Amino acid sequence: MTLALETVHLEKAFGGLRVTRDLSLKIEAGARHALIGPNGAGKTTVINLLTGVLKPNSGEILLEGSEITGMPVHKRVLRGLSRTFQINQLYPDMTPLETVGLAVSEHLGHGSDWWRRMGTRGHINDEIAENLARFHLLDAMNERTSTLPYGKQRLLEIAVAIAAKPRVLLLDEPAAGVPESERHDILAAVASLPRDVTVLLIEHDMDLVFSFADRISVLVNGALLVEGAPDEVARDPQVKAVYLGEGADA
Amino acid sequence: MSGEGTMQSEVGASAMARARWRWPEVMFWLLAAAAILIFPNRYLLLTEIAWLGLFALSLDLILGYAGIVSLGHAAFFGFGGYAAGLLALHGVVKEPVLALIVAGLAAMVLGFATSFLVMRGSDLTRLMVTLGIALLLRELANKFSNITGGSDGLQGIEMQPILGLFAFDMFGKVGFIYCLVVLFVLFLLARRLVNSPFGLSLRAIRNNPLRASAIGIPVNRRLIAIYTVSAFYAGVAGALSTQTTALASLDGFAFERSADLMLVLIIGGTGYLYGGLIGAVIFKLLQEFFSAITPQFWQFWIGAVLIVIVLIGRERLHRWVMFVPRLVAGQFARAGTSAVVSKGETL
């Protein structure tokens, strides 16, 4: 088995507070892996460590077998590790076309191109069009992002991440805050992500987790509590205790 | 899918739409060129406006597009100014255009070297660091008076004809045309740059650097690049000022120059390239107007104007000023669309 993403004894502390404790995750290539845990379990810190926003105190992070522990954020993206954000971090004044265009330009190595105008390279336009079409954003491509319905903004969030042509995609609560009427579109988009992209889903919504994931890791107090197939995790008494509170033990 | 080809060309067309020339832009440059004929007595003022506009454009590149604040942009202006002065004075590079480029490149090297200091920290640290660099250079120029002429400045600069053909005349006509051409060429270059993938990535960095790096944009490298380019522009502006006045002085580095520049850009607005140019026109006209009525207190009135702009908001002022032109444009636009619709109906 090949591993798409792996952490080895990852540790992170803020002052005296250990927020990531000896975390060793193995995410197989092509997996639909979910990372769940109660509030304050340290899920966001794990994402920040994986993407390079934070540096671990010790431990290693490996992307497809090669170490990326100290690599800056943008280089990880070019190496194939892309993410979405939980709270929208989109560009309100840009259009979906421009936003996706940014990611495609960087991915194809034309991001520092200062002489050619946007839109004058055919293969960049092709990729932009393909991405917008996949996420049903073509009709809205010239609207300002801030004017788009929330569901569309969430789709754009995923579209931007996918436009970087990742090998591993970190999905941070993709359906958070999306109204019920638009929820279906998000779930469909998540379900139809290319199979060759490994997905690590960080999610609160258990329906989404159990319908999507083929493997689940449960994080509690910064440490790995349980890892296994969805039905194993669902039956696990420790997990029940964490999610249902002390009542489950009684 | 049959629509795929058109879909892609649509994407291309929409992406390019932002960079399309619009009639107010064409009007702006036609007016600028017309100034040569309309105001034959005001070439000195026009020349100052031209290099001040270029200087403000250089600040707009970092502030308006990349979000880098600076209170010491005069460092590059002064450096370019002295470079041009020294090149002419010692006859190293006699031809003005070539000297201009060399002076710009000298400022560019300085910009690149200091960019690493500016990358660090928040807006406040950037303000302080840029301010510090400008002060430092001013004192260095003061100290090495054997090279710079100290507080007297560089004197006795004699300018050779531009390209060996056009000699600077005493009315300043050639000087103004020269500045205007340089401004236009560098403006075109800047316009290209901001409408490129590079320019778009700068906007992304300004709005949200965290997101920009998550897209794969090397944030620091892009910021260093635009800071360096901006230093080139500021250096050229300084060199133009030296070449057209045949003087380079410590004023080039002065804090007031950096502060005034910020004012110019705030008056004109950031992030659309014309802000610096329009700001320069308004600033210089206000300066002329107020110093004619109250020579001692013109800065009082400039200060008042600044407060009004900031409090009322440029957006609102712009809306008031543009009310009539927009009404006319709206009428034309409506006539245009109705024509298209009726054509479609007959088909």
Structure notes:
- The complex is a heterodimer of chains A (250) and B (347).
- Helices cover 35% and strands 24% of the residues of chain A.
- Chain A has 9 helices and 11 strands.
- Residues 246-250 of chain A have low confidence and may be disordered.
- Chain A has a 6-stranded mixed beta sheet, with helices on both faces. In chain A, strands 1, 2, 3, 5 and 6 form a 5-stranded antiparallel beta sheet that branches.
- Chain B is mostly helical and 347 residues long.
- Chain B has a domain at 22-255.
- In chain B, helix 3 crosses helix 12, helix 5 (96-119) runs antiparallel to helix 11 (219-245) and helix 9 (197-207) packs across helix 11.
- The radius of gyration of chain B is 22 Å and the shape is globular.
- The chains are: A alpha/beta (250), B mainly alpha (347).
- Chain A binds chain B through residues 51, 53, 72-75, 77-78, 82-83, 85, 89-95, 97-98, 101-103, 105-107, 110-120, 122, 125-126, 128-129, 132-133, 138, 141-142, 160, 164, and chain B through 4, 7-19, 192-193, 195-201, 203-204, 207-208, 210-219, 221-222, 225.
